[in-house]
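Let us work through a complete example step by step.
Step 1: write down the sequence.
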Amino acid sequence: MIEALQFEFLRNALFAGLLASLICGVIGSLIVVNRLVFLSGGVAHSAYGGIGLAFFFGWAYLPCATLFALAAAMIMAAVSLHMKQRADTIIGVMWAVGMAIGILLIDFSPGYNVDLMSYLFGSILSVPRSELMTMTLLGAVILGLIALFYRDLLLMSYDEEFAQVRGVPVRALYYLLIGCVAVTVVIVVQVVGLILVIALMTIPPSIAEKYTTSLLQMMVLSCLLGMLFIVGGLWGAYQYDLTSGAAIIMVAAAGFLMSLMVDRGLAVKRRRRWLQAHHQNAADNT
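Step 2: predict the structure and record it as tokens.
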């Protein structure tokens, strides 16, 4: 892997992957804690409409996809707040319609030559240096906003009513969080694609949640796990000529499976200790 870094495209891929893991670790932790996985999936897939618009009109991909994803995210956030009974249905419809709009616009684009697979499953090996600068800027804005409103987000995530009593603008923070999710999705699409983006945003935080005792610890461990999964997936893709996005997610899935096995082993060990202590107490009493 080290010798492969002599190639610029692999250095760009590694930088994009590490940047994505940093952002996903922070935003993904908030998604998992606030139970926003389904809504985030809707934002991710509706963002494909922005990609279609960019190709149809010949606009730059990142600004167009970001604005489209932000608009879709704001609508979904409003629906989830004001129409809770129908929120899942409407978000599901927007999820499908966004993808359909994107595919049809790409079909109608003159000189159709777009590789759909690169957006559905990612193309981290083809991220140019110019987009790395934009990704870094967007990532810095997201992380800066989360750092600025961290205490309020922490209150909102664990006790929304208490946060409101303390004067925290819960609704405004909710829109801010969903907007950050939309921008994160656009950044991470380059790494693992639309289909797999939610896995990268939820698997590391889901593992980290079990072994940490605070939101900050969960974010840090999620970032480290994301970096480990992305480097491992890139190595596998380079060694065995695999699709990089799918390789990264399979490494993450293997990590998730190992965490379940560790949990199961610890549970069995605790039960054995409890049984031994119970039998010892019974023997002492007799």
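Step 3: interpret the result. The radius of gyration is 21 Å.
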